[in-house]
Design brief:
Elements (H helix, E strand, L loop, with lengths): L4 H12 L7 H13 L5 H6 L17 H10 L11 H14 L3 H36 L16 H20 L7 H9 L1 H7 L7 H12 L3 H27 L38 H12 L16 H4 L9 H8 L1 H46 L4 H8 L2 E3 L4 E3 L14
Helix pairs in contact: 2-5, 2-6, 2-11, 5-6, 6-7, 6-16, 7-11, 10-11, 14-15
């Protein structure tokens, strides 16, 4: 240390500094947990965390002899050497930058991965919301999910409700299918039987899904309800794991810096509750609804839209309340003088409206100027990563199956493209 006094001073200042420290390797731990939650096949999930040059043994799945042979032969199509999956590629790059504490480059790769995953997360979120809403509507007296038992009075109506329940469940299950490129689909298509087999227990699982479909066809509704609850609980476990990992995404990003480099909402406040099948939803009768409405309105501030007891408060009442409420009586007494007052009020009102419009135009100009400044600051803040950040913006999901069109990778980086 005596030979390097400048380095010693720099190190001392760094240790004593109160500035927040960004630790890319810890940020990576949050990223990999979130990304892995989207992959439901355990070997491929483990493989996602392995770097490009690492040789780590992955526990082999309990496949049949033939499937295990193909697994060893084909490997992971998502990390093929030609066009790997964009998320796997970005995560590998993020791992490299995290280990080298290159925070800026790490954030760019993280943003790329998160933006690619976001459409699928939104599909999952929408699917679970639709299903939960339906279940709550039917988790009541007389509903198909009545915790005290369901009595089938109308077979046709019952079948219609179970069909809707099944459609919502199928959408929920399908939302866990990963978005993959055409190139990776072509690899998996060559050995479709094998990949169908190893993914057969993904999500609900092929066996349970078949039981549900059979129960509807033979109208064995008691068995359907039990299997349906089991299926929903399985998917809820998967979604809650993703939701929990999402809440931890920016755990290691110092809040004071406010520099995540992406606009992903971690949904910290979102509830993680599961459906309670053994309790019916509360029924809101007229009395309960009135109490619920009054409770929800109690915290509302007085915005002048409703009258209060103070008739002298002109700011609350406006023209419809208070002293102007008896205009018909005053008009007879005031005569022509009242007309002059009204004319003067109209002129004043027109003048105020004109001033308000001018103020709105000025405010709009200020907002436009502020937006230009903000955009300018963003583009100029990190010129060294401007090209890579443009790739993040170039992530475009096209088609209903979520195929991706991506910008090509930079020199020395894993290719993002593929076809």
């Amino acid at each position: 240390m005596d030979e390097h006094p400048a380095f010693e001073v720099e190190l001392t200042l760094l240790v004593q500094s109160q500035e927040p420290v960004e630790k890319a390797f810890k940020m990576y731990s949050s990223l990999i947990s979130y990304a892995q939650s989207f992959e439901l096949l355990e070997p491929f999930k483990q493989d996602m965390a392995i770097g490009e040059d690492e040789a780590i043994d992955i526990t082999e799945p309990q496949f049949s002899t033939n499937d295990l042979y193909l697994y060893r032969k084909l490997g992971n199509p998502l990390k093929n050497g030609v066009h790997p999956h964009p998320v796997e590629a970005a995560v590998m790059q993020a791992k490299h930058f995290g280990e080298n504490e290159d925070v800026l480059s790490f954030k760019v790769e993280r943003a790329f991965a998160l933006q690619y995953l976001e459409p699928q997360y939104q599909r999952m979120s929408a699917a679970v919301s639709h299903l939960v809403e339906f279940v709550k509507d039917e988790k009541c007296t007389g509903g198909i999910f009545d915790c005290y038992g369901y009595e089938m009075d109308d077979a046709e109506d019952c079948l219609a409700k179970f069909s809707v329940a099944m459609l919502l469940l199928e959408d929920y299950d399908a939302s866990f299918n990963r978005d993959i490129s055409f190139y990776i689909k072509s690899i998996m298509r060559r050995n479709r039987t094998y990949y169908d087999q190893i993914y057969s227990e993904r999500g609900i699982g092929a066996a349970l899904m078949e039981q549900l479909n059979t129960a509807i066809e033979i109208q064995k509704f008691d068995g359907f309800i039990q299997d349906y609850k089991l299926a929903v609980n399985k998917l809820a476990t998967l979604f809650l794991a993703t939701q929990h990992a999402r809440k931890q995404l920016f755990k290691w990003d110092p809040e004071v810096l406010d520099d995540r480099r992406c606009q992903i909402d971690p949904e910290i406040e979102r509830s993680g509750d599961t459906i309670q099948w053994d309790v019916n939803e509360p029924s809101l009768g007229p009395d309960e609804f009135e109490e619920h409405y009054e409770a929800s309105s109690a915290g509302d501030s007085d915005d002048g839209s409703t009258p209060d007891s103070d008739d002298d408060d002109e700011s609350d009442h406006g023209n419809g309340w208070g002293e102007n409420a008896n205009d018909s009586d005053h008009g007879e007494e005031d005569g022509e003088g009242g007309d002059d007052v009204e004319a003067g009020e109209e002129e004043d009102g027109a003048s105020k409206r004109s001033e308000s419009m001018d103020d709105d135009d000025a405010t709009s100009d200020v907002r436009d100027d502020e937006e230009e400044v903000i955009e300018g600051n963003w583009s100029n803040a990190n010129p060294a990563t401007e090209d890579r950040e443009q790739q993040v913006d170039d992530v475009v999901l096209a088609g209903t199956d979520g195929e991706a069109t991506l910008g090509s990778g930079q020199d020395g980086q894993v290719d993002r493209g593929g076809w």
